[in-house]
Amino acid sequence: MQDGISTSSMKRASIGITHNFLAPRTPQHNGVVKRKNIRIVEATRTVLNAFGLPLTFWAEAVSAACYTQSRSLVVKRLEKTPYQLLHNKGPNIKFFHVIQDKFNEELKTRAENLPNTTITQDLEKLFNEWDEDEDDPDRTSADATRTSAK
Question: Does the keyword Nuclease apply (predicted)?
Fold first, then answer.
């Protein structure tokens, strides 16, 4: 033992193992975890709201949020992504694409395949049938309930 440092500590330090003096599950660690979870939940809500998806897609949206956040720059001090810190190389992001573009293309092709009917014709047809069913167009729904109750 040299000056209060044991040989095992020196051995650990030589291979890069450091002793962390903070115990796990302490308030110091919980703050970091809470912030990360908040970021993931916000990203998940954003994805669900942006595409109008129901909550049944929550697990898939969380998975996508975790995947993209692990490949985006979050460690500003080191200018590296978490993926780079773990694997010592940059992530392959060639396959990332905007989902909405695919949806828009599909909607365009579906719209082109629809028969040529306009909404105004359908609405006029609907309201003409509605007007024919009604005897007095000036009568309100309150009047109709009073007459049906008699």
Answer: yes
